[in-house]
């Protein structure tokens, strides 16, 4: 596997051979991305990636029962201080024979949308859609993103007009699925970083620090996300599609991408560091 010096020499030679390939559409020079310019997949980076993956995965599996107990206490506290009509449910999981844990989630009644809530949601959806036509032209990406998001509540409104009694999901199953999906996402952080971040030459400490920060943040955010969604979901299951598709795991994934992007701005390890 090539070092960064060899990679840069080959890239420089390619630019001299075909200078057009290194030019933008306005004639400017396209510089090499810093991640590629400093990419060194050496033996130590591979060893570090394997070690950190095994270490953080093992620590997470050992601490997961305690984390679930902590989430349970947070949810109980939220029920006591928030205007929330819900109870606590526990789902038993055994991912491997020697480790078992109880996933806490909120149990709530399934409430179909009333005509008042339905019409208010229609008004809010139409108002936001109209706003997209008055936004400036430089916000075209935001316009199309907002219109795409509005398709979710629009289809939900149509569904609950035509087939309200056939809605197959309950708040209980949704809340349990949200917590379970959050656990699955946090569990994959060491693997994702092992394939996309540990291979770069940042040093052991920075790699371990970024992983610990990302996993801890997601673990602290998940019960708060559950409580916030429960406050909306107790009004009606009409909001469940929006909560699931827009404000569910996509938010957690974007947080993980943000942490990764932040970590990629850190300085690479110098040649003098061990």
Could you characterize what this model shows?
With 274 residues, the protein is mostly helical. It has two domains: 1-10 and 21-40, no CATH class; 41-112 and 167-264, no CATH class. It is 64% helix and 7% strand. It contains nine helices and two strands, in the order αααββαααααα. It has helices at 4-17, 34-37, 43-81, 115-131, 140-162, 171-196, 204-233, 240-245, 249-264; strands at residues 87-96, 99-107. Strands 1-2 form a two-stranded antiparallel sheet. α6 (171-196) packs antiparallel against α7. The longest helix has 39 residues, at 43-81. The protein is flat and about 65 Å long. The two termini are 20 Å apart. The model is unreliable at 1-5 (pLDDT under 50).
The assembly state of the depicted protein chains is single chain
| Range of strand content | 5-15%
Number of helices: 9
**How many strands in all?**
2
- The overall pLDDT, averaged over residues, is 85
Along the chain, the helix and strand elements come as HHHEEHHHHHH
**Shape verdict:** flat
* Major sheet strand order: 1-2
Helix content: 55-70%
Q: What class do helices, strands and sheet pairing give?
A: mainly alpha
- Poorly predicted ranges: 1-5
| Overall radius of gyration | 24 Å
Distance between the termini: 20 Å
Number of domains: 2
Biggest sheet descriptor: 2 strands, antiparallel
Entry keywords:
274 residues, mainly alpha, 2 domains, two-stranded antiparallel ribbon, 9 helices, 64% helix, flat
